[in-house]
Amino acid sequence: MIKKGVKIAPAKGKLGVLIPGLGAVATTFIAGVEAVRKGLARPIGSLTQMGTIRLGKRTENRVPAIREFVPLADLNDLVFGGWDIFPDDGYQIACKAGVLERDLLDSVRDELEQLRPMKAVFSRKYVKKLDGPNVKRGRNKWELAQQLKEDIRRFQKETGVDRTVMVWCGSTEVFLKPSDVHSSLAKFERGLKANDPKIPSSMVYAYAALSLGIPFANGAPNLTIDIEAMRQLARKNNVPVCGKDFKTGQTLMKTILAPGFKARMLGLDGWFSTNILGNRDGEVLDDPESFKTKEESKLGVLEHILQPEVYPELYGKIHHKVRINYYPPRGDNKEGWDNIDIFGWLGYPMQIKVDFLCRDSILAAPIVLDLVLFLDLARRAGMRGIQEWLSFYFKSPMCAPQLYPEHDLFIQLMKLKNTLRYMRGEEMITHLGLEYYD
Question: What is the residue extent of each domain of the chain?
């Protein structure tokens, strides 16, 4: 039985996009949107802009563009703002990041120069390899959260935006596990006032956003919103959230290849992954405590896809290693090497080598765009809490505490598109297809 769909408020007016961490990823995203608006480039890699969705049976030939199927905000209605520990404007940041060619940046220079970061909430306790002068001061984290809320209100008033979304594009923080201060909203708010060390900067941003009813996406592997206090706040204020850690280079390849091995029942002895990168992300991850946070995000992928407890003969003894090396000459052009030892019929061994010379920010930018538009859609559709249908975009997808995360890229994509079908009252696609042969 087809549902009637979900009532979705129209995307009227401007949509504010607030970004903590105006570095390489953020400026590549913003410059790219500006270039697309001017007709200078195409939004390659963006599902919301380039993707289609099949509706009904294959014989019906109904394959609209996603942006026409669901009422997404128009790119021309996006307005940008954010925070950073360095005071450089958007053009200066993008030039220093070295991701985009100068000719392209010069074509959107006026727009980028108008992007001036607000003072950031930041502490070197959580990101030890960075420091900058453009930082807020306050007696405690509660006061800092109030300052962020005032920043948001001022941005909304000055720009005249009707709705707002926040996407964390800041650095990877030191590894933290959920603790008592994270176990309820009341305890978390007391922790803010008591300057609890288990509350890092990213949580202060998330708290400010959710308190004002603003959807939040976590693009780093930080704990941030993956705690009960934030889940309570999101439910209380009817706010959608998602995360964590943008799925870009090496992990993207794992979520493509590993489902294929499992589908063919090919065994896996080991998977050794190493990366070299030289941007701000690489510098931050040169700190062992920040690397630990990233490592946890990367290591969980194979276990959940391959299910060693279900297939012990094939995946019960995997040797999975991940290394990240800071190498400044490489800049934003990360290189990921993978050595994969598999085995097949009668246990005979085989090897696969992958050398992915990727551009991290180029892969991340369209993810930011899609999350902005989909989170805004979810908010207008009255959806709240964890948006598991957006797992497609993350290395460590958030899910309900009693569930395991789904990492298989193809299952994630099916879930995303079926959610869109559900929202518009269309039939779910199962790919069964028996009716074609009756």
Answer: 15-246+362-423, 250-357
385 near 374, Cβ under 8 Å?
no
Helix or strand run (H / E) with residue 422: helix 409-423
Phi, psi of 267 (to 5 degrees): -80, 160
Tokens 């959920």 -> residue: 178
Q: Give the model confidence (pLDDT) of 177-186 as tens digits.
A: 999 999 999 9
Residue type, 210: L
Q: Which fold has domain 250-357?
A: Dihydrodipicolinate Reductase; domain 2 (3.30.360)
Name the percent of the chain lying above pLDDT 90: 85
**Max Cα-Cα span within the chain:** 72
Q: How many CA atoms lie within 13 A of 382 on its CB side?
A: 6
- At residue 437, the pLDDT reads 85
Q: How far is CA 28 from the centre of its chain?
A: 15
Enter the pTM of the model: 0.94
Measured CA to CA, the distance from residue 189 to residue 206 in angstroms comes to: 12
pLDDT digits (tens, 9 = 90+) for 95-111: 999 999 999 999 999 99
- For the chain, how big is the Rg over CA atoms in Å? 22
Class at the top of the CATH hierarchy for domain 15-246+362-423: alpha beta
Give the integer Cα–Cα distance in Å for 28 and 365. Answer: 6
Q: In what order do the strands lie in the sheet with 78-84?
A: 118-119, 78-84, 15-20, 163-168, 216-218, 240-243, 385-386
